[in-house]
Specification:
Layout (H helix, E strand, L loop, with lengths): L28 H22 L3 H13 L6 E5 L5 H10 L4 E6 L2 H13 L8 E5 L12 E7 L8 H11 E12 L5 H20 L4 H12 L4 H11 L3 E7 L4 E7 L1
Parallel strand pairs: 1-2, 1-4, 2-3, 4-5
Antiparallel strand pairs: 5-7, 6-7
Helix pairs in contact: 1-4, 2-3, 6-7
This protein binds ligand LLAZDA3J and S-adenosylmethionine.
EC number: 2.1.1.329
Subcellular location: Plastid, Chloroplast
Protein name: 2-phytyl-1,4-beta-naphthoquinone methyltransferase, chloroplastic
């Protein structure tokens, strides 16, 4: 039987949440793009609520480990609604330049609205680019630092994403990648699953986004451990790679130097 794709009006992709006929998990790039478009209106508030504001600390650590400094030209990959790009902007100041890249129009629209509401002059140094992390529209060796928050786990081809990051980084520069930690400690991974099943998904279901947040647990299961992420970075050609567990082991950060 031919594959049946259901579309809901005004959505950018197939019907995934609240859809009785939903059959496959969020596998393709366009399904993931549709998911992030759908959750954009509530994404920031849910992150604050679900992490009790802790994600702000993890994002600050990510920026600090990227080595970004005043005057730098930096890239925030999979920038979503812009949290990390705004932090980078304060770091590189008005004579620096920040590019926030994402493939979700809705997330970028939230980022751009937030930028307009901010009063600090440095925030004018941010440019939002709609693009694909797997095919970056930048020349080789362009950036002094790159950050990526909760992005690598969500791209369909992690190897290509890391190769693209390496390509657009200057020699000696760093990428700092924040994400959920796929822990090898059974106590930590059970606690993470417990939080997702009993807090994250029930809260999200109150916004009609149960299926979209269920994807989170599957994506962590299919992600790489810290050791595997270090290996991936070295395999694609980074000269060094170090993984740090943070947030009590729930989160992790990969720092790799070109
Ligand atoms: C930062 C959070 C979520 C980001 C996020 C990432 C994704 O890839 C998604 C994909 C699809 C849908 C949504 C998302 C998404 O929102 C929130 C993280 C919340 C944690 C699961 C729970 C944190 C629990 C504690 C309150 C933290 C305690 C820390 C302490 C130091 C032990
Ligand atoms: C969980 S959000 C993280 C947003 C933000 N970095 C943060 O930390 O809050 C993941 C983001 O990755 C983006 N994304 C996933 N795959 C992508 C790809 N191939 N190219 C560009 N953006 C992508 C999604 O659109 C989404 O905005």
């Amino acid at each position: 039987m031919a594959a049946l794709q259901l579309y809901i009006p005004f959505s950018t992709g197939p019907c995934l949440s609240n859809c009785r006929f939903r059959s496959s998990p969020v596998r393709s790039s366009s399904e993931r793009q549709a998911l992030f478009n759908r959750i954009a209106p509530v994404y920031d508030n849910l992150n604050d609520l679900l992490s009790l504001g802790q994600h702000r600390i993890w994002k600050r650590m990510t920026v600090s480990w990227s080595g970004a400094k005043m005057g730098d030209s930096v890239l925030d990959l999979c920038c979503g609604s812009g949290d990390i790009a705004f932090l980078l902007s304060e770091k590189v100041e008005s004579n620096g330049k920040v590019i926030g890249l994402d493939f979700s129009k809705e997330q970028l629209s939230v980022a751009s609205s937030r930028q307009k509401l901010k009063s600090k002059a440095c925030f004018m140094n941010i440019e939002w680019v709609e693009g694909d992390a797997l095919d970056l529209p930048f020349s080789n060796g362009h950036f002094d630092a790159i950050t990526m928050g909760y992005g690598l786990r969500n791209v369909v081809d992690k190897h290509t994403a890391m190769r693209e990051i390496l390509r657009v980084l200057k020699a000696g520069s760093r990428v700092s990648i924040l994400d959920f930690n796929k822990s090898t400690n059974p106590v930590t991974s059970s606690f993470q699953e417990l939080m997702i099943d009993n807090v994250v998904v029930p809260v999200a279901s109150g916004f009609g986004l149960e299926e979209d947040y269920k994807y989170l647990k599957r994506s962590i299961k299919e992600f790489l451990t810290g050791e595997e992420l270090e290996k991936l970075a070295l395999d694609v050609g980074f000269s060094s790679a170090r993984y740090y567990e943070i947030g009590g082991g729930l989160m992790g950060n990969l720092v790799a130097t070109r």
